[in-house]
Amino acid sequence: MIKIEANWIDLRYLDDLSTQKTFIHSLHPGVKLLTTLFFVVAVTSFPKYEFAALLPFFFYPLAQISLGNLPWQHLLKRLLLVAPFVLFVGVFNPLLDRTPVAILGPLVLSGGWLSFFSITLRLSLTVTAALILVATTGVDGVCSGLLRLGVPRVLVVQILFMYRYLHVLLEELIRCIQAYTLRSFHGESLRFQAWGSLLGQLLLRTLDRAQRIYQAMLCRGFDGEVPFSRKRTVQSRDVMYLFSWTAFFVLARCVNIPQWLGNLLAGVAR
30 to each of 120, 147, 240, how far by Cα in Å? Predict the structure, then answer.
């Protein structure tokens, strides 16, 4: 139960980070959302065997973490939680693609291993960018940015409610496990045989609490319209931020910067 509570607190911690007063936090949510979208598109557009050309894209998350005063240890911990899913995407590539593509001394690197490393790197970059977006903007800010970009309001409200309902679900899960532990002999952990009934009770409890929350919202004047954060105008610094990063993404996508630097250094050495 302690681990579940710790993960629940960590989930809220990203929202807490979005309340800081830094340069990145003060930017327009829609601009940060567009920048992250361009970053994801640029990273995922590389061929499957490309690896070295992706390395310059690390500059974007590193700059965001530094300017946004974000704890990189926490972001790394969140990234490690999805690492099994990231590895599962390309784990079979070395078995299916054994075409030699590079020779590193006595080792022959197959296309499967190279594509596996490329997929892992790209997923790590995109997931980190998404975490940084939430940590510097908040879920409310992200939903507000989606509205400004023309996403249907019904879909945005569903995303916001789904995120809020996740907190309700975790709170009820913690209460159920705590009640089970207090009523069991010697405070033993949850048995496998009790998981079925526990999940059923959890669903009923969360639905009941969600209904109470909805009734409380109606009593406070809720009419189906969720009041997001106040509208903000796009300023000149927002435009410069978007233009600068977009230019960098286009440059890093069109030019293999590590290869160019290697050729430049080799020419100087001669």
Answer: 28, 9, 14
